[in-house]
Amino acid sequence: MLYNLIRNVQYFIMNIFSANEDINLNDFEWALSYMTVDQDSINVIKKFRNYIKGPIFGCSSSNGVFTPYGFKRGAYFLAAKKEDNIHVYPVMNMAMGKTAYNIAKMSATEIKENFGIPDIILLHSTPGFEERVIEGIIEIFGQNMPVYGGSAADDNFNGKWFIFKDSLKLKEGFLMVGIKANDIYNNFISGYLPTRHSGILTKVNSRIAYEIDNRPAAIVYNEWTGGLIDKYIGKGGTILNITSLYPIGRNFGEDDGHKIYLLSHPHMVLPENNGITFFTELKEGERIWLMHENKEALVDKVKLVAQNVQEVTGKEILKGAILIYCAGIIKTISNQANIVAEKYRYVINNAPFIGAATAGEQGFFKGNINKSSHGNLMINTIIF
């Protein structure tokens, strides 16, 4: 089975493994790590290099890491042994908006040529060009390749995030991990419901919405939310924290009769024209809905992302899992992050897991869509 490792080796030996287990600490094939930005990934990995012979990779997580012990600051690992039969091929490259698509194609090609066709791809990008990376993956592997993951984050969304692989750490780029395993369950949900308010994006430039129904976007959004951003109209400013319960959503299709919404988190009001910036790309002509959910429901929604796992796996013992949960939601429910970890641990039957609080989430929409997308304020999981 997969194992959880904690950065203190004594704690790792005494608390994760029982006294009668015959554990060879040099027998781990690879490890996924999430850590808070106060950790030095290079030095942390050096401490564990004697225990993990293969690649160690991951990204920074906002304010904590989801573990079976709660939402904790520090550096945490999910490690696989040979008998788990879960194989990975991680590629990490520096990239930015203008280069991300081509470098993503190059990285996906490297995985394909050296690893074959993966069952799933785990993606950790730095924020800003996630759509380009997904497009590059689709170009090489096709639209049906499931891409799951989340964007590296920091505590206050001020650019201190990072990704890492072994002795290399990057502030701008992406980590792309091909994964092969016998049985993988995955899911991607929004956790929010549409309100009665909707409109058409009539003027857009990438991640900026200038107009909704031919009116300034911030003014329309403010009306929809009952004056939520009153003091930012005409003045501008960051609205990230106060809009976490009121994202916009685009209907991408249906899965088993349920409408699927991809969410976008309002980031800033532009003072000169009352436009709104977002953490995803938008397109002119799209219809958007104002979405909403309360804090208590968002805490409970983590169960939904894995609720069907037993239906898929039957009575098999789960080997382990990866949870990706939006950092924007964590900011809103901060004192309940431990409860999120507890609810997730319960629904996956106490299997080892690790989770990141991310600045954007990627996942595969099933149903009549069958395509991977990048969104905000969303939850996804990979379960082995």
Describe this structure in words.
The chain has 384 residues and is of the alpha+beta class. It has two domains: 274 residues, no CATH class; 100 residues, no CATH class. The chain has nine helices and 27 strands. Strands 14, 15, 16, 17, 18, 19, 20, 21 and 22 form a nine-stranded antiparallel beta sheet that branches. Helix 3 packs parallel to helix 4. The chain is globular and about 60 Å long.
Q: What are the salient characteristics of this protein?
A:
single chain; alpha+beta; 2 domains
Low-confidence stretches: 7-23
Count of DSSP E strands? 27
Radius of gyration: 20 Å
Overall outline? globular
**Beta-strand proportion:** 35-45%
As a percent range, the share of helical residues equals 10-25%
Largest sheet: 9 strands, antiparallel
Structural class: alpha+beta
Provide a brief overview of the structure.
The chain is α+β, with helices and mostly antiparallel strands and 384 residues long. It has nine helices and 27 strands. It folds into two domains: 3-189 and 297-383, no CATH class; 193-292, no CATH class.
Q: Secondary-structure blueprint of this entry?
A:
Layout (H helix, E strand, L loop, with lengths): L2 E4 L2 H8 L11 E8 L5 H8 L7 E5 L4 E3 L2 E3 L2 E7 L5 E8 L5 H16 L4 E6 L4 H12 L5 E4 L12 E3 L2 E3 L2 E8 L4 E5 L3 E13 L2 E5 L2 E2 H8 L12 E2 L9 E8 L2 E7 L1 E4 L6 E3 L8 E6 L2 H6 L8 H5 L7 E6 H6 L4 H11 L5 E6 L2 E5 L5 E5 L3 E5 L1
Parallel strand pairs: 2-3, 8-9, 23-24
Antiparallel strand pairs: 1-6, 2-6, 3-10, 4-5, 4-24, 7-12, 8-12, 9-25, 10-11, 13-27, 14-15, 14-22, 15-16, 15-21, 17-20, 18-19, 18-22, 20-21, 23-27, 25-26
